[in-house]
């Protein structure tokens, strides 16, 4: 890809939209996932709306992504082990 070329805002290759969401995730996402259990991976395609004045991913977006990841992982794990009916 050449510098400055537009990037599609869809899911990264092999990922699908994250099923669990919240108003903040809707605002800063979309976040994506692939795999299950120990193979679960979360992803975010950084587009212009996620950047700061220097065109880098804004720290608040990255911190929100980092904050969401453990909760999603735990909830999906619980759903797989039938410990959390609200996470299914």
Helix content: 25-40%
- In what range is the share of β-strand residues? 5-15%
SSE run: EHEEH
Give start-end ranges of low-pLDDT stretches: 1-7
- The end-to-end distance, rounded to whole angstroms, is 38 Å
- Compute the number of helices: 2
Whole-number radius of gyration? 14 Å
- The main sheet orders its strands as 1-2-3
Describe this structure in words.
The chain is built from 2 helices and 3 strands; from the N terminus they run βαββα. The relative contact order is 0.15. Helix content is 32%, strand content 11%. The longest helix has 22 residues, at 59-80. Mean pLDDT is 77; it is low at 1-7. By secondary structure, the chain is of the alpha+beta class. The chain has a 3-stranded antiparallel sheet. The protein has helices at residues 23-28, 59-80; strands at residues 16-17, 31-34, 41-44.
Question: SSE layout and pairings?
Answer:
Blueprint lengths: L15 E2 L5 H6 L2 E4 L6 E4 L14 H22 L8
Antiparallel strand pairs: 1-2, 2-3
